[in-house]
UniProtKB/TrEMBL annotation, chain A:
Keywords: Exonuclease, Hydrolase, Nuclease
Native species: Lysinibacillus mangiferihumi
Molecular function GO terms recorded: exonuclease activity; nucleic acid binding
Protein name per UniProt: Exonuclease
Every YprB ribonuclease H-like domain range: 102-269
SUPFAM superfamilies: Ribonuclease H-like, TPR-like
Record bears the keyword Nuclease: yes
Tagged with keyword Cell inner membrane: no
Taxonomic classification: Bacteria, Bacillati, Bacillota, Bacilli, Bacillales
Automatic annotation (TrEMBL), chain B:
Coiled-coil spans in chain: none
InterPro entries hit by this protein: DEAD/DEAH_box_helicase_dom (IPR011545), Helicase_ATP-bd (IPR014001), Helicase_C-like (IPR001650), HRQ1_WHD (IPR055227), MZB (IPR018973), P-loop_NTPase (IPR027417)
GO molecular function: 3'-5' DNA helicase activity; ATP binding; nucleic acid binding
Limits of the Helicase ATP-binding domain: 69-249
The protein's name: DEAD/DEAH box helicase
KW ATP-binding (keyword) present: yes
């Protein structure tokens, strides 16, 4: 029978229209009934925690400081902190030594909307003696308030470090919190560091996919064996609460554990890169770093990194670095150095950037070096580039042509 | 004909002495204007609103506006029935703004049936707010809202103007992002209530039940304010749609201008067959006269095809002028940007004549038009008045011309002008109980907030249905609640608009390198309008369907220039699945219940665009049959006539044709919502049977209504067929006839034994 026919057979099941009963004021919170699989889940290695909202399962793992995850021991996190402490500039990813840091990752039953539940809250934090992983597992959907309450995110202040948490995990958490706002204390607003954003800055044009798994394999020296693909998590959780058998669910916990460990080493690796500690990255990555500093208005850091790229890599690989370096030098009013860098970049950058470089050259020669002849040379080259590049949109080309013709005209008058 | 601008009264004076027109205009009818009934501003009306109204030259309200204000102030939901141009928007603007001025946390949702209407109202509202000098934030929130300001709308918008589709898939499933709206929601405004009918209305009824559920969760209890065009049952519809008790404001205090109605019947060009000249041609001729007289005119035609045909004829007028856009078509299937241009053109007067489907019945602001031509009866009285209201907004004199087509209903209306001018409008029905629709929204509701094991959903007890959803694995039951437990996002799988969920996309491949999408169409219509070799019209341009990819739901069309259009036949087979009710009737039985039907497009005809509309060719259609489970009312009778099966088939087909035409007299529905199918030997009882069925899976409450109406329906049908002046059957009664036997006599005999 088709789905449609099946549904229509169910007409009889629809209750008769009745007057809606008067709903009495919401009574005080009633603890939900405890699921019958508590023993099974405890046997699998989870600990039952009771709080005033129900129960939640907990799993905790301690890692000694020297625990190795991929290329890095976890304690290199402290090196990273020291680097930030000794840095003489601010950065959105910098951490204070005494800052309370919480690496955070969730597993959910879907991708968006109010019907998506969080069934696992994973935290990794530093103590005096070791690193501690704490995972809270939703006992069943009725025990959601207990899960959220246990996270203590309403109580403590911490910097939350995530991978894509700014647009996914945290808003999801806020949604779940809102649904329980009648009983829970308010969720605190926390400082957030999203390592997906920094990874995008570092490896733009370098890595095709920025899945955490790819970053682990390509940059962090960690590869997963026997991992559960994330998209199976919803089905696995549903199955675990239906059947009471937690075996597959425990694998999801391991998946989450790896995510969190990698967050630490990714933070370390990114910090090292920003301080040029690691040297096996490509010219492109270092150029991205230089550009990032430039966008943050940290000119000395930017120039420093970019100059190293131009010194260490061949002209082709260093093309973009020359271009960004030139922009910084121009801002420093080092015009002849800027000209050299722009010229060095010209043959190795994509057309749109090249047009920008030619424009900058024309400007510098016209306004700063007062060499109209050179300005004219680059202006003509720019116009030539506009007409010869075919994959630009027509309207865009016309707009550019108009402004470049203006420049040409002006230069003609000045000569 | 002199090419000179004239006023309407000058033009009408000319027409009185025009021999040709004199004969064809069967009735002249003038409705005199009516003076306004005023009421003073409410004493507590906020000074900022007084200021804004004064700035608009308003110093008192119409009585209905005052009544609305007072009801809203006492927290009573209400529905105001308001004719076009009666200042209906003040019925909601004033109480809503008053509330916000009193309490800056207060919020309101305005719901419009389309994005375009929301845009339009936003401009008007913003102007009013500006005139008040107060800082009140109103925003539209729909698919076009830029991501950058969405956050702001959610957090700070006092008034959020949206449409049911956006509410359904963009707001309700994300309600935690709208906490400040839902916690403080004081008013829900539903404009154009009468448009929420049939399948769409039934869907929206559920969207509103979901909305109310969410409000309850956040502790708000909004008051509903609905405005509607004239229909028979506005209060019932509003209560059914919102599941709330409504007061009714039925008496408008707005003034009405003088309206002249002309009832025009095209001349008979073939006496024996009762064939009249095509209404489309007559309308085009009348429109030309108005165009030349410089009168801004709107022409309504019932189908997309007719709109395009009339546009094609009228464009002849402007053919020699370059870049002339003074004649335009306007209908669904055009892209939104195209429609915005047309709306603007109407307001600023660059467009003088617009030809529209009922898309323009709604409150899209196109300013004042002087004349309106209806190509045929729009199917119900409410629509007719909406269309007529397009002419002469405010107090100007207006001209409304009704041009009858040859269909039974049209001929009935032209012969009985009082039917249109004097009788009650029809009922508007919705049917939220449709199981398919209900289950769809039950899923969405479960996604949005868990049901407890004692919860109702709206007025329904749904616990057993939740059990079923749990078996399906989308929700999970804990001790006291049903939790959504699936990675699906149910609202994305449900469209509120189309009967069949999949639409066919129409792709123009006239220039192979530049193929582009020019429109879309629902699956059911596509079977008869987009089959291969069909002629599809878009903005007056003819396209031929080159290839219909039914699997992928794509129709590839190419521009052509031909002098015919196409018309397809649909064969339908019925099977009774379950009989819910039954009663005896004149030796036969009338029943209501569930049926399964199989529809298949069979052949198409090519019909010439000339006066006689000759059939100039035909071909087969190869499409898989479409199956549907729906509700139906049927009439079975024993065959006491000694006729051959073939004779009976033809007589029943003729009778069904005539019946089909009269159903919209009783229930407000589109002709495409319900159908009559004769079966000489119904499979369940081997008796000749007429089936009236809802053309939507699960039924939509129309044929259920017909179950009680058969006597009346048969009486009207009989009288009409008997009184039709044709000899042996014509498009106005039993449909065009080819055979030489006098089928009309047979149909009369048949109806005699039924009636």
């Amino acid at each position: 029978m088709s789905y449609e026919n099946k549904i229509l057979q169910m007409k009889k099941m629809l209750g008769k229209k009745v007057q809606q009963p008067v709903t009495n004021e919401q009574s005080t919170y009633q603890k939900p009934i405890i699921p019958n699989y508590v023993n099974q889940w405890e046997k699998a290695g989870l600990t039952r925690i009771d709080n005033e909202f129900g129960i939640v399962f907990k799993r905790q793992v301690h890692y000694p400081f020297h625990y190795q995850h991929g290329h890095y021991p976890l304690q290199s996190f402290f090196d990273a902190l020291i680097k930030w402490q000794s840095a003489d500039f601010d950065h959105p990813y910098a951490l204070d030594v005494d800052e309370n840091v919480l690496f955070f990752d969730t597993e959910t039953t879907g991708l968006k909307g109010v019907g998506t539940q969080i069934f696992l809250l994973g935290f990794l934090e530093v103590t005096k003696h070791d690193f501690v992983l704490t995972q809270y597992v939703l006992a069943d959907p009725a025990h959601e308030a207990a899960l959220l309450f246990e996270s203590r995110l309403w109580q403590k202040t911490a910097t939350i470090i995530t991978y894509n948490g700014k647009s996914f995990d945290w808003p999801q958490l806020e949604t779940r919190w809102t649904l329980n706002q009648k009983v829970l204390p308010k969720l605190r607003t926390q400082r957030q560091i999203d390592l997906l954003h920094s990874s995008k800055r570092l490896w733009k044009n370098d890595m095709e996919r920025l899945k955490l798994k790819s970053v682990e394999e390509e940059k962090l020296g960690f590869s997963r064996v026997g991992d559960i693909p994330g998209h199976l998590a919803p089905i696995i959780y549903l199955d675990a609460v239906k059947s009471g058998v937690p075996d597959a669910l425990m694998k999801v916990l391991v998946h989450n554990e790896w995510d969190l460990l990698s967050l630490i080493t990714l933070y370390v690796h990114s910090t090292y890169l920003l301080f040029e500690q690691s040297s096996d990255e490509s010219a492109n990555t270092y150029t991205n770093i230089g550009k990032w500093y430039a966008d943050l208005k940290k000119r000395p850091q930017s120039v420093n990194v970019l100059e190293k790229v131009t010194a260490q890599f061949d002209a082709r690989e260093a093309g973009n670095a020359q271009f960004y370096l030139a922009l910084q030098l121009k801002k420093n009013k080092q015009y002849s150095e800027a000209v050299d860098a722009f010229v060095a970049s010209l043959h190795f950058i994509e057309p749109r950037k090249k047009l920008q470089a030619l424009e900058q050259l024309a400007i510098i020669y016209e306004h700063h070096l007062k060499d109209m002849k050179q300005a004219l040379v680059y202006t003509l080259e720019g116009i030539q580039l506009i007409t010869s590049t075919e994959d630009w949109r027509m309207e865009q080309k016309q707009k550019w042509e108009i402004s470049w013709e203006k420049r040409l005209h002006r230069l003609g008058n000045k000569q | 004909m002199l090419s000179k601008k004239r006023t309407i009264s000058e033009l009408l004076n000319e027409w009185r002495y025009d021999d040709e027109l004199k004969e064809r205009i069967i009735h002249w009818h003038t409705l005199e204007g009516r003076d306004a009934k005023h009421a003073p501003f409410p004493e507590n009306l906020h000074p900022a609103l007084v200021k804004a109204l004064h700035a608009r030259g308003i110093t008192q309200l119409y009585t209905h506006q005052r009544e609305a204000f007072d009801l809203a102030a006492s927290h009573k939901s209400f529905t105001a029935v308001t004719p076009t141009a009666s200042g209906k928007s003040y019925c909601y603007h004033l109480p809503v703004l008053q509330k916000i001025l009193e309490d800056r946390n207060a919020r309101a949702i305005y719901l419009f049936p389309t994005k375009a209407l929301a845009q339009d109202q936003k401009n008007d509202l913003n102007e009013l707010i500006e005139q008040s000098g107060e800082d009140i934030l109103s925003y539209t929130y729909d698919g076009d809202t830029a991501p950058g300001i969405r956050q702001k709308v959610r957090k700070a918008g006092h008034i959020v103007m949206t449409n049911p589709d956006m509410l359904h898939s963009g707001i309700l499933p994300h309600h935690t992002k709208w906490v400040s709206l839902f916690e403080n929601l004081k008013y829900i405004v539903i404009d154009e209530l009468h448009t929420y009918k049939g399948v769409f209305g039934s869907h929206v009824a559920h969207v509103i039940r979901r909305l109310k559920r969410i409000c309850e969760f956040y502790g708000s209890k909004p008051v509903f304010i609905c405005t509607s065009a004239t229909i028979k049952n506005p209060k019932e519809l509003a209560e059914n749609l919102t599941n709330d008790t409504h007061a009714l404001i039925a008496d408008s205090g707005a003034p009405v201008g003088k309206k002249t109605f002309l009832f025009y019947n095209p001349p008979i060009i073939h006496k024996t067959f009762g064939v009249r000249r095509s209404a489309v041609l007559e309308v085009s001729d009348l429109a030309k006269r108005l165009y030349i007289a410089g009168i801004q005119t709107i022409i309504f035609a019932k189908s997309r095809v007719r709109v395009e045909m009339i546009v094609t004829y009228l464009k002849e007028l402007t053919r020699n002028k370059l870049q002339d856009e003074s004649v335009r078509g306007y209908r669904g299937g055009y892209l939104p940007s195209e429609r915005r241009v047309i709306e603007r053109g109407l307001r600023d007067g660059t467009i003088q004549t617009v030809v529209s489907t009922n898309a323009l019945e709604l409150g899209v602001d196109i300013g004042q038009l002087q004349a309106c031509i209806m190509t045929g009866y729009p199917g119900n009285i409410a629509s007719a008045w909406q269309q007529a209201g397009r002419a002469g907004r405010r107090q100007d004199e207006a001209l409304i011309i009704y041009v009858a087509q040859s269909t039974a209903l049209d001929q009935y209306v032209v012969d009985h002008p009082l039917f249109l001018l004097g009788s009650d409008p029809e009922e508007v029905r919705i049917y939220p109980e449709n199981m398919l629709i209900l289950m769809d929204h039950l899923k969405c509701a479960a996604f949005e907030l868990p049901f407890t094991t004692s919860d109702m959903y709206g007025e329904y007890d749904i616990q057993e249905l939740l059990d079923y959803l749990a078996e399906e694995g989308v929700i999970f039951k804990t001790s006291e609640k049903w939790h959504w437990m699936s990675d699906r996002f149910p609202a994305h799988d449900i469209s509120l608009r189309s009967a069949s969920q999949e639409n066919v996309v129409i792709i123009d491949m006239t220039v192979p390198a530049r193929t582009k999408v020019i429109g879309e169409m629902d699956r059911h219509s596509a079977m008869t309008l987009l089959h291969e070799e069909a002629i599809y019209l878009h903005q007056g341009i003819q396209y031929q369907v080159e290839k219909l990819d039914w699997e992928e739901k794509k129709a590839f069309v190419r521009e052509v220039d031909v002098d015919y259009y196409t018309d397809a036949n649909l064969a339908v087979e019925m099977k009774v699945l379950e009989e819910d009710r039954s009663r005896n009737y004149q030796g036969g039985t009338i029943s209501f219940g569930d049926v399964g039907l199989v529809a298949q497009a069979t052949i198409f005809k090519k019909i010439s665009l000339n006066d006689k509309q000759d059939n100039i060719g035909s071909g087969p259609i190869h499409l898989p049959p479409d199956e549907m489970h729906t509700s139906s009312s049927w009439l079975s009778f024993s065959n006491t006539l000694q006729w051959s099966e073939a004779e009976l088939t033809e007589a029943m087909t003729g009778a069904a044709y005539a019946m089909n035409a009269f159903i919209p007299l009783f229930i407000q529905c589109d002709s495409s919502d319900v159908a009559v199918v004769p079966q000489v030997k119904a499979t369940h009882n081997n008796l000749p049977t007429f089936f009236v069925y809802d053309k939507y899976p699960g039924g939509i409450g129309l044929s259920e209504k017909v179950y009680d109406l058969w006597e009346d329906l048969l009486t009207k049908t009989m009288n009409h067929v008997v009184n039709c002046p044709c000899e042996s059957g014509c498009p106005s009664c039993i449909g065009p006839q080819n055979s030489l036997v006098n089928m009309k006599r047979k149909v009369k005999e048949l109806l005699q034994i039924l009636y």
